[in-house]
Design brief:
Layout: E1 3-6, E2 18-23, H1 29-45, E3 48-53, H2 58-71, E4 75-78, H3 86-96, E5 100-103, E6 111-113, H4 117-136, E7 142-146, H5 153-169, E8 178-181, H6 187-200, E9 207-211, H7 214-222
Parallel strand pairs: 2-3, 2-4, 4-5, 5-6, 7-8, 7-9
Antiparallel strand pairs: 1-3
Length: about 220
């Protein structure tokens, strides 16, 4: 549901700034926490918030950008996962003179907010590698990494970091045991890919699984 509403705060002004936020999806914890954080900070500033849902849909994201422009927002915050539509989206905002902040996926001319993906990945990979050392004597049958080529190079560095850290912890690991599959972004896709990998490797029991996002990994965990 798209809605615009005023938020109350001590810093409320007569003509508040209108911030447009298009979330990547609703119903997943990380996306919900992101939206709640934006709403809370906007309330402190006395800003209004226009909420939109990109719902993992590139075309809908472009339509939501049009909605922001038509509503005359003052600043746009985009959480949109498809790197290839970012230039067209930025053209809409640039033509309207609206500054843009993007979350996790960079866009040309926008302010980027996100973590150091490679270092974050290395933290996860180091934990997995240490788990294998502590529990399996370093013997691993399979490493499954759920990747997502649609999000571009920067988020991909997260999976690169996971893989590099696992190899650092387990230098004797056979590279052929490391599988990178395009199962990122969607829980159903993560479930499908992981189930197929498990079916095709029936003798693998000591398996490390990680990837680009928690959503697809919930599917992997279910599998």
């Amino acid at each position: 549901v798209n809605e615009i509403y005023p938020v109350e705060g001590e810093a409320a002004v007569e003509e508040p700034v209108v911030l447009g936020f298009a979330n990547m999806v609703e119903g997943y914890e990380f996306a919900t926490m992101t939206r709640q954080g934006i709403e809370e900070e906007a309330a402190k500033l006395g800003w209004e918030v226009l909420l939109l849902n990109n719902n993992f849909d590139a075309n809908l994201a472009l339509s939501n950008a049009d909605t922001m422009v038509l509503k005359g927002i003052d600043v746009a915050v985009e959480f949109q996962l498809y790197e290839d539509v970012m230039p067209a989206m930025m053209d809409k905002f640039n033509e309207a003179g609206i500054p843009v902040i993007t979350i996790d996926i960079p866009a040309p001319g926008a302010t980027f907010v996100g973590v150091n993906n490679y270092e974050a990945g290395k933290l996860a990979g180091a934990w997995l590698g240490q788990y294998a050392l502590d529990n399996w004597g370093g013997e691993v049958d399979l490493v499954l990494l759920l990747d997502d080529p649609t999000v571009g190079e920067l988020p991909k560095q997260r999976v690169d970091g996971i893989q590099d850290a696992i190899i650092e912890k387990l230098p004797d690991l056979d590279p052929e045991k490391i599988l990178r599959q395009p199962g990122g972004g969607m829980r159903e896709k993560g479930l499908e890919i992981t189930r197929a990998v498990l079916t095709s490797h029936p003798d693998a029991h000591r398996i490390l699984v990680s990837g680009i996002d928690d959503i697809s990994l919930l599917g992997g965990y279910a599998a």
